[in-house]
């Protein structure tokens, strides 16, 4: 089985070029960026200029903070300049961030995401195939494209598009229109197999697409370390991260799949009170070992492979407390398991 393994690229523009070279030298297949406090595209542009083979992805860019045309432009430019090494990963975020942080409209997120991706694909069809631009939907309309605004450097083809999903409607949307399903880190093997995959298949079937048309990208939560001190910091950081995700109503179905649904409103109330540092204490050992892979560096790849090796084609490995060389060892172990 062929897999690709990605590392996370910093959003610090002063360090992005150096980190991209390091990621490539360590043998990773690609690099991903996330949209938190900084733009996710700028570090990838520096990676384009400083690597030769890394596949580059946003994991993820906030879709509803932008229009289909702006997303099509940046995706095209990164893909063309990298020689076809870019995938546009998109996520919906949640209503408060879209309306109050980005001051953009929010409604029917799954339907809006489906139409946004279809609009980008229509724009690509104009740029790459010469089709007239006549996209008129409920949320987006694109009917004007003149030669002056049409890219001509199209030799490397259209960028792939991925959608991040947790719930059933967004998962079905990914199956219907996307090339990748970005599985949220806050998941479990049971939820992936029992909830995500059936809805992915339903989405594929609804659009008459074959199995495999939308492949899985997943970055599991990892607790490990090369020393006891690093392991302890990794464990605490992961407990805090699980608690943060678990406080979000949209992610409650993952908890409910394991009988932990009542924890969500309790954690959400703690966020309102600003009790962020206390939230990780509510995450049990059972939850930690279900939602994350935990162990020595040598034990991580076998756990990931046992849970997800038959499902996932692209993995990302990240840990804020574990150095990248240790993650590269995990990546090498995963490749060995895939080859076997």
Give the helix/strand layout.
Elements: E1 4-8, H1 13-25, E2 30-33, H2 41-50, E3 55-58, E4 61-62, H3 68-82, E5 86-91, H4 95-101, H5 109-129, E6 135-136, E7 141-142, E8 160-165, H6 168-177, E9 180-183, H7 189-206, E10 215-218, E11 221-223, H8 228-246, H9 252-256, H10 263-272, H11 285-291, E12 292-294, H12 297-308, E13 314-317, H13 324-339
Parallel strand pairs: 1-2, 1-13, 2-3, 3-5, 4-5, 5-8, 8-9, 9-10, 10-13, 11-12
Antiparallel strand pairs: 6-7
Helix pairs in contact: 1-2, 2-3, 3-5, 5-6, 6-7, 12-13
Q: What does this molecule look like?
A:
The structure is a single chain. The chain has 13 helices and 13 strands. By secondary structure, the chain is α/β, with parallel strands linked by helices. Strands 1-2-3-5-8-9-10-13 form an eight-stranded parallel barrel, surrounded by five helices. Strand 6 (135-136) and strand 7 form a beta hairpin. Helix 6 (168-177) crosses helix 7. The chain is globular, with a radius of gyration of 20 Å.
């Amino acid at each position: 089985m062929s897999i690709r393994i990605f590392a996370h690229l910093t959003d610090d523009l002063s360090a992005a070029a150096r980190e991209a070279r390091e990621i490539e030298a360590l043998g990773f297949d690609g690099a991903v960026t996330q949209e938190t406090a900084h733009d996710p595209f700028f570090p990838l542009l520096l990676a384009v200029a400083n690597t030769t083979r890394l596949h580059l992805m946003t994991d993820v860019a906030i879709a509803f903070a932008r229009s289909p045309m702006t997303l099509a432009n940046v995706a095209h430019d990164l893909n063309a300049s990298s020689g076809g090494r870019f995938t546009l990963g998109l996520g919906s975020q949640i209503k408060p961030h879209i309306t109050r942080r980005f001051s953009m409209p929010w409604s029917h997120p799954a339907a809006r995401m489906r139409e946004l991706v279809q609009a980008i694909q229509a724009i690509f069809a104009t740029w790459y195939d010469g089709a007239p631009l006549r996209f008129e939907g409920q949320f987006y309309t694109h009917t004007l494209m003149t030669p002056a605004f049409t890219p001509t450097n199209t030799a490397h083809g259209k960028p792939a598009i991925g959608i991040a999903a947790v719930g059933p409607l967004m998962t079905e949307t990914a199956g219907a229109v996307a090339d990748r399903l970005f599985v949220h880190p806050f998941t479990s093997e049971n939820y992936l197999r029992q909830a995500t995959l059936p809805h992915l298949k339903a989405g594929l079937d609804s659009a008459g697409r074959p199995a495999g048309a939308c492949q899985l990208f997943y970055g599991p939560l990892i607790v490990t370390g090369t020393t006891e001190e690093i392991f302890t910091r990794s464990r605490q950081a992961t407990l805090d991260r699980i608690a943060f995700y678990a406080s979000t109503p949209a992610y409650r179905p993952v908890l409910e799949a394991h009988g932990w649904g009542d924890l969500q409103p309790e954690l959400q109330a703690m966020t309102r009170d600003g009790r962020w540092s206390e939230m990780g204490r509510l995450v049990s050992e059972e939850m930690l070992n279900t939602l994350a892979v935990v162990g020595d560096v040598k034990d991580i790849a076998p756990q990931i492979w046992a849970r997800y090796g038959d499902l996932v084609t692209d993995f990302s490995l990240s840990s804020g407390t574990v150095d990248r060389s240790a993650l590269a060892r995990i990546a090498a172990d995963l490749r060995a398991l895939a080859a076997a």
